[in-house]
Amino acid sequence: MSQNIIHNHDHYTKVIEKVKYAKEFVWIGTADIKDLHVKAAPRAVSFLSVLDALSRKRVGIRILHAKEPGVNFKTSLKKYPLLQKNIEMGLCPRVHFKMIIIDSTFAYFGSANLTGAGLGLKSENNRNFETGMITDDKQFINQLMEQFDTVWMGKHCDNCGRKAYCKTPLKLK
Length: 173
Hints:
Blueprint: E1 3-7, H1 10-19, E2 25-30, E3 37-40, E4 43-46, H2 47-56, E5 60-65, H3 71-77, H4 81-86, E6 88-91, E7 99-102, E8 106-110, E9 131-135, H5 138-152
Parallel strand pairs: 2-5, 5-6
Antiparallel strand pairs: 1-9, 2-7, 3-4, 7-8, 8-9
């Protein structure tokens, strides 16, 4: 079992790069969501291409986010019809946590959103100052998954004080 604090560019190398190797699922929680880019020889490509490749391998992908994705994200998503069909996305204006959970065996949680300046390829002089933690501690990962799942399943929707800002409540019928 290990836990490591990461910052700045480590978010890309130790978190985003690891997503490529998911076998079962990837859960992403983020307040802000944009079309971040990743390395792919000979150039950078949309992170959605990574998620599309995972979708083709039947890896489940869930993204909880607090506001509408950026225009570039929406445009890029249209290029991946299979991903568009298979990705599960939930919008909750109260989501402010930032986490990525892979296969119940790896988790990141910290300050970085799913944006180029947070988790993407932006250069050291153009990215946000971020900090977070990565872990393979099963008990800790289970607690993060429980928090994610509680929001995902809409368990807070009935008593939510932000209903006026929620277009589609997560609460399952």
